[in-house]
Design brief:
- The chain is of the alpha/beta class and 367 residues long.
- The protein has three domains: 30 residues, no CATH class; 219 residues, Rap/Ran-GAP (Rossmann fold); 102 residues, no CATH class.
- Helices cover 27% and strands 19% of the residues.
- The protein has eight helices and 13 strands.
- A hairpin with a 2-residue loop joins strand 7 and strand 8.
- The two termini are 27 Å apart.
- The relative contact order is 0.16.
- One of its GO terms (molecular function) is GTPase activator activity.
- This is Si:ch1073-90m23.1.
Length: 367
């Protein structure tokens, strides 16, 4: 919480933030983009003890965009998913399709991310989710992410948004990047509910994302655990910074926070973490963030449990179909199980089953 604010309006950077009994004071410096959780459990990049020069004379260029590699969710799954040789290894013609469908979550080209706007002096979930107005700076930031599309009748990857009845708003931000489709759940474009301080309509989508972007307007840091969610494991925070007038254009400072059991992921932030053109970096960072989050203990443990159950069902189905094909009339081929059938938008049936299992397991394991 903010316990004291300098009365000098001409020096907004001279603010005293008292965070959980540990004061963070700044004098003529930019405040950090992210502050750690009171209870710990998150890492921050760059670390708070690293002084970051974001002056107009500092470098505004990162490494070569060609080095922004995308991580593989599962290299082996991709190999047999793409291999024609895989089809010749089974007597049952539908077996390769069933197996690759089972593993499609590991090679899925679709991603969805939350987008939050944090205005100056907003430190709570209620304040951030309650924002409705989009400033010109925020609109410019959204244009970097992708194209604003009309949801009604949208035929691309919808990321769980309603494209028929308008129940999740009328617009969203969508893009394609290196053969992948990305849908952004922008909080300000999701339905706002009067009288609901929690804005559950918005949190229902953003709280079920694994990675979220935070666009800051002002100097107020983002607290790592301010958005309460079992799924959100990583936040990438972006703040527009001032540059010398003669240089023109906008520059953005970037910081990342994730739960402590999420492994580090690329692309590596440059030093200083400031960009003038960072779309390639940001999209690659978002995708790699989600892939890395699946390695966190909560996801990996529950994924193993869910995957084992689905694998048993797959084995039983393949065995039954193979026996029928070999002439065993006592067995009747069963239709493809719901657990192996991906949803119509192609986002991967496993992920939806996985989320259901997570929600159920959390009630009993108190994860």
């Amino acid at each position: 919480m903010i316990t004291g604010v300098s009365p000098n309006k001409h020096q907004p950077n001279q603010v005293l933030f008292c965070i959980y009994q540990s004061p963070l004071s700044t004098t003529g410096r930019e405040l950090p983009l992210i502050l750690p959780s009171k209870l710990g459990g998150y890492w921050i990049d760059p670390p708070l003890d690293r002084l970051v020069d974001v002056s107009p004379t500092s470098s505004h260029y990162a490494v070569d965009p060609e080095s922004y590699d995308i991580m593989e969710r599962d290299g082996e799954a991709k190999i047999y998913h793409d291999s024609s040789l895989f089809n010749s290894l089974f007597f049952l013609s539908q077996a390769p399709e069933l197996i690759t469908t089972f593993d499609e979550h590991r090679v899925s080209p679709n991603f969805k991310f939350g987008v939050l706007c944090q205005k100056d002096r907003q430190l709570t979930e209620e304040d951030i989710l309650g924002n409705n107005e989009e400033s010109e700076e925020f609109k410019e930031f959204l244009s970097i992410l992708g194209e604003t599309v009309q949801l009604q009748g949208f035929t691309g990857f919808r990321g769980g948004l309603d494209v028929c009845h308008g129940q999740t708003g009328s617009e969203a931000v969508y893009t394609s990047f290196r053969g992948r489709e990305i849908m952004f759940h922008v909080a300000t474009k999701l339905p706002y509910t009067e009288g609901d301080p929690q804005q559950l309509q918005r949190k229902r989508h953003i709280g079920n994302d694994i990675v979220a972007l935070v666009c800051q307007e002002g100097q107020t840091p983002f607290l790592s655990d301010v958005i309460k969610s079992h799924f959100l494991h990583c936040f990438i925070v972006v703040r527009r910074i001032q540059r010398q007038e003669e240089t023109g254009g906008a520059a953005y400072q970037v910081s990342v926070t994730a739960r402590e059991d999420v492994p580090p992921f690329g692309p590596v932030l440059p030093d200083p973490p400031v960009f003038t053109d960072f779309r390639e970096f940001l999209l690659a960072k978002l995708i790699n963030a989600e892939i890395s989050c699946y390695k966190a203990e909560q996801f990996s443990r529950l994924e193993l449990r869910t995957r084992s159950s689905l694998l048993e069902n797959l084995q039983a189905e393949l065995f039954t179909r193979s026996q029928c094909m070999m002439g065993d009339q006592s067995l009747i081929a069963v239709p493809t199980s719901e657990g192996l059938r991906g949803p119509s938008e192609g986002s991967g049936g496993f992920i939806e089953n996985f989320k259901v299992n997570v929600c159920i397991s959390l009630k009993y394991l108190h994860v």
